[in-house]
Amino acid sequence: MPNLTWDNLEDIALALYDRFPDQDPSYIRFTDLHKWVTELDGFGDDPKRSNEAKLEAIQMAWLEEYRENQ
Q: Which of 19, 46, 57, 65 has the lowest tally of Cβ within 10 angstroms?
């Protein structure tokens, strides 16, 4: 996977779903989500570039992927 940045919301959501397929994203705290994103293979952005809006968008994209596969 190419270097992920905070702007690759869909790619991050898919990577999180692949890593945590049984985790319902609805119940994840943003602090945990931030940590998990920055620990993804291929993530190469500055962790400080994150904000609540980006984390929420990632969470919603991940939730959509999760619901489609349940």
A: 46
Task: Choose the CATH number for 9-68 among 2.60.120.10, 1.10.260.40, 1.10.10.600, 2.60.120.260.
Answer: 1.10.10.600
Pairwise CA distance, residues 3 & 41, whole Å: 8
CA quadruple 19, 40, 43, 6: dihedral, nearest 10: 70
User: pLDDT tens digits for 18-55?
Assistant: 999 999 999 999 999 999 999 999 999 999 999 999 99
Beta bridge mates, 43: 4
